[in-house]
C-alpha cells in the first residue's frame, strides 16, 4: 500500500513537468478548447500596474563657472515614491522576452530641520518614460524573470511641497512647481529580478523588483549642481495573456 501511495505522489509531481515539455510551447500555451480545437497562444502579455520605490540621489557641485556649495542640501534624505506603468511583453524565444511600455515616473528627496523650528520639504521629479527591456524567463505557470534595459524619459516638472512655521506658531504648507533649468531628456539604466505567475490561461500577476540609475544630470549644465537619482522599486500588477 505504501508503494502504491508513493507511486501516486511521484506521478502527481512529475505530471506537470512532463506535460510542460510536450510540443514547442509550454503547457499553458497549447491546449484543446471545449469545441475540440487546438489552441496555440502566443504567450504575449499586456500588463499594467504600479511601482512603489525608495528613491534617493547623488548631489555634487557642478565644476566650473556655475559651481556653488551644496550647503543644507547635503542633509536631504531618500524616501518612498509611487510610479505607474502599462506595457507589452512579446516572446522573441521561449526564454527571451522583449518588454516595452510607457510609465509615469516619480522620484525625489526629503529635507527636515532639527531643533524647535519646523521646516520640511519634499522634492518630487515627474517624468514620462519609455521602458525598453530584454528579459530571460524560465518556467510554465510560474516564471522566473531576469531583465536589463534602459528607460528614456522626458521631464515634466519638479514639485516642491514645503511646510514651515510662521510668526503665529502655526504650520503653513506651500506647493511650488518648477519647469525651468532641467534637462528635458534623460535616461535610466535598469536591472530586474522577479517572477510572473499566470494563474489562468488569460490572466496573470507579476512582482519584479528592479534597480535603476539615472545616467545624466537632472539639471542643465548652467545649474550649480549635478543631480542624479537612483531608485529601488518593485514593479507589480496584472497581465492579460494572448
Automatic annotation (TrEMBL):
Organism, scientific name: Wandonia haliotis
Signal peptide location: 1-20
Keyword Signal tagged: yes
Taxonomic superkingdom: Bacteria
Protein name according to UniProt: Outer membrane protein beta-barrel domain-containing protein
Key words, A-Z: Signal
